Queue: 2 jobs
Job 1
Amino acid sequence: GNSVTQMEGPVTLSEEAFLTINCTYTATGYPSLFWYVQYPGEGLQLLLKATKADDKGSNKGFEATYRKETTSFHLEKGSVQVSDSAVYFCALSDSRRALTFGSGTRLQVQP
Amino acid sequence: DADVTQTPRNRITKTGKRIMLECSQTKGHDRMYWYRQDPGLGLQLIYYSFDVKDINKGEISDGYSVSRQAQAKFSLSLESAIPNQTALYFCATSEPGAEQFFGPGTRLTVL
């Protein structure tokens, strides 16, 4: 079956540092890949997505590239802000199933 | 108005009580989902519905049941609540293979 593996957190960075959160997946076929963000006390919001190999999703300074050869979808941001502190979830979907989520990575950005 | 709404937002109940959580959506999506989130963990799929007549069990369906009353409404029931069902519950909707849109969540406490 499908599975998603994320790096464990928490990840603690200083403001303006570079962020990478690793995500790898196992799936049959050609899934779509997503990053969701959950701010404290809120539900999940879609951050970015990619629907086919080599696609790059981007939003709010975050980027992730769909790498089929390494089955990865790592999240990056060049300069994090305190307001980016949240839990980030990697997920995949194919048309036959619901989303499969990773366990989430908590990011803490310090001023 | 929010596209995906959940009621109630918070609920405290006692062991053995029957509880219903409701979800409504105005996005016109056929697919709806119920997830559970425990502290520090990712989301686990309870049930999902690809249309009004198609309901499927997820990873952790034991102790839960659902009803898809209409395209826009998907309810989750706990027939006899127990303390380890204390969690955050999220409803979501989507088109096939596309991103999911989440409700704000229901915080359920079972004493």
Note: Chain A touches chain B through 20 residues (CB under 8 Å).
Job 2
Amino acid sequence: SQTIHQWPATLVQPVGSPLSLECTVEGTSNPNLYWYRQAAGRGLQLLFYSVGIGQISSEVPQNLSASRPQDRQFILSSKKLLLSDSGFYLCAWSLGTASNQPQHFGDGTRLSIL
Amino acid sequence: SQELEQSPQSLIVQEGKNLTINCTSSKTLYGLYWYKQKYGEGLIFLMMLQKGGEEKSHEKITAKLDEKKQQSSLHITASQPSHAGIYLCGADIMKTSYDKVIFGPGTSLSVIP
């Protein structure tokens, strides 16, 4: 069966510091991968998605970037964190298209910027 | 305004009571998903609906997609404390060539023992 691992679970970082969040999927090949941010009281905002190694699409201009160095590895990064980067970050994977295959989520990373 | 609306925003029910959560859009829902989220945790996939009029059930939870595919409901029968959490609907409303699911803002459910 497929599993998704996301770490760390919580992170406290000072403003201006770099960021690296990692997500890996096991038990499947060539998944579509996604990074979301969830703000309090709001729905999920899609940040990045990837349909293959090295293929990254950005949904929202921001202070973050994503990379997919391996088929089942997705990394969310920043060179200099802003206060507004605080939030709950979720990684997800899926097979197929949005209209016929559900996305499956990791446990999330709670990021606090001081 | 949100492309996917959910109502109510929050719900407090007595254990054993039935409840319904709604998800609506002004656009066609090509794939409709229901998720449950415990605070501070990831989303757990519950059900997927694709066809107008489709209905699916899992244990005490039933989800329906209306014939026009613009509204979905999630019904919980005889609620239990384990049903507490945030319920989110997500949908492909643009049927684009890439995988983009729009999510509603969520409905927070509390079940009082």
Note: The mean pLDDT of chain A is 92.
